[in-house]
Amino acid sequence: MSALQCVRVELGARSYDVVIGAGALEAASDRLAALCPRGRALVAADRDALGLHRDRLEGALRQAGLEPVIIEIEAGERAKSWAGLQALTEALLDANIERGEAVIAFGGGTVGDLAGFAAAIVKRGAGFVQIPTTLLAQVDSSVGGKTGINTVQGKNLVGAFHQPSLVIADSGFLQTLPRRELAAGYAEIVKAALIGDAALFERLERAGAQALSTDDLAGFVADAVRFKARIVAQDEREAGQRALLNLGHTFGHAFEAEARPGALVHGEAVALGLVLALKYSQRIGSVPPGVGERTAAHLAAVGLPTRIGDLPGGPYDPQRLVARMASDKKNTAGRITLILSRAIGEAYAFPGADPGDLTAFLQEDIDER
Ligand SMILES: NC(=O)c1ccc[n+]([C@@H]2O[C@H](COP(=O)([O-])OP(=O)(O)OC[C@H]3O[C@@H](n4cnc5c(N)ncnc54)[C@H](O)[C@@H]3O)[C@@H](O)[C@H]2O)c1
Ligand SMILES: O=C(O)C(=O)C[C@@H](O)[C@H](O)[C@H](O)COP(=O)(O)O
Ligand SMILES: [Zn+2]
């Protein structure tokens, strides 16, 4: 068993730890119990993850003196909806949650985003703990306090910043994760490297398809969490540099909003979004030619989509995609803001992307088959 790692997210009085590694659940369960003053654990749980790991979860909670009260959620983007929010919030109210109690999210990013938002609004704010069970949630969504739901207008357009008090990222849960979901989570690790850690990108590239093997992965997870924790500590509410964590997401969220329901997963949209962001950076001359192709080659090696024509959930229409990008939360003064690249390991915000040029750019990717 590899040693546990602990990454601190420094936010003054609201600082918290991310405990990472095999056995993190049992190792951190006393700390979890301290956040559950009524001797019960209010868990918003991904039904599938629960089906696979219920004995372990309940065993650890009981061992820590907590009675599990489990609210099951069918994971996926559909859970992140007004209906999903209403159902979970009402279930928490039916359980007579007190503000001093924590809502414990057990599952991937969809359950974490939903449960965090419910925790932010129920009784005007309850506690929150994340037990992420997907790679994506362990490296990215469980850290940083972005919570929310999707609406018909697009991804994550309603939500709140609500930090957890503890994150328990136990790699044991990843053993049951389908390969497609593992690859999807990996896209967010590559994103972190592209934004701010060129050395990490080179290590990922050297690992190639082996990057997803358990031994390599454990180190990469901790690297990605450390990177995100640093950015969040400096800019919790995205007044500036936190927006860089959105590399690939202006494109990615547009694909997700346009995709056939249930056909596309976030990490796949991000993978393609990363490639498009780098190729668009080449188009406007901010990054040297070849960087987009180099990134695409690495993402393709782990089985991620790198062309619009290969993305599940299509076909996609460039004009509709650009219309979606026009409602991105980063936009100001009606102009589309993209996160682009100057080099591997150096991202920046570009606030004036031209909608016509973006449409042509996307159409070219579709045509170049
Ligand atoms: N808040 C943030 O900062 C942030 C960051 C990145 C992504 N996100 C959001 O996260 C969401 C994507 O999260 P995700 O990729 O975890 O998707 P997800 O929550 O839909 O989980 C993916 C699938 O894995 C299953 N699953 C979960 N744990 C499992 C396990 N241990 N074994 C087997 N199957 C398991 C789920 O049931 C689901 O079918 C998106 O909505 C995205 O917008 C948020
Ligand atoms: O934590 C952040 O900040 C991110 O941007 C992380 C992203 O990977 C994540 O997908 C997030 O949900 C996107 O947030 P949004 O503000 O673009 O909705
Ligand atoms: Zn993301």
UniProtKB/TrEMBL annotation:
Cofactor comment text: Binds 1 divalent metal cation per subunit. Can use either Co(2+) or Zn(2+).
Keywords, ordered alphabetically: Amino-acid biosynthesis, Aromatic amino acid biosynthesis, Cobalt, Cytoplasm, Lyase, Metal-binding, NAD, Nucleotide-binding, Zinc
Record keyword Lyase present: yes
NCBIfam families reported for this sequence: aroB (TIGR01357)
Transmembrane parts of this sequence: none
UniProt record similarity statement: Belongs to the sugar phosphate cyclases superfamily. Dehydroquinate synthase family.
InterPro entries in the record: Dehydroquinate_synthase, DHQ_synth_AroB, DHQ_synth_fam, DHQS/DOIS_N, DHQS_C
Pathway: Metabolic intermediate biosynthesis; chorismate biosynthesis; chorismate from D-erythrose 4-phosphate and phosphoenolpyruvate: step 2/7
Function: Catalyzes the conversion of 3-deoxy-D-arabino-heptulosonate 7-phosphate (DAHP) to dehydroquinate (DHQ).
Residues annotated to bind NAD(+): 133-134, 146, 155, 173-176
GO cellular component, one term: cytoplasm
Domain of life: Bacteria
Gene Ontology terms for molecular function: 3-dehydroquinate synthase activity; metal ion binding; nucleotide binding
This protein's encoding gene: aroB
Descriptive protein name: 3-dehydroquinate synthase
Gene3D superfamilies assigned to the protein according to its UniProt record, in alphabetical order: 3.40.50.1970, Dehydroquinate synthase-like - alpha domain
Cofactor: Co(2+); Zn(2+); NAD(+)
Subcellular location: Cytoplasm
KW Metal-binding (keyword) present: yes
Substrates-to-products reaction catalysed: 7-phospho-2-dehydro-3-deoxy-D-arabino-heptonate = 3-dehydroquinate + phosphate
Residue intervals of the 3-dehydroquinate synthase N-terminal domain: 71-183
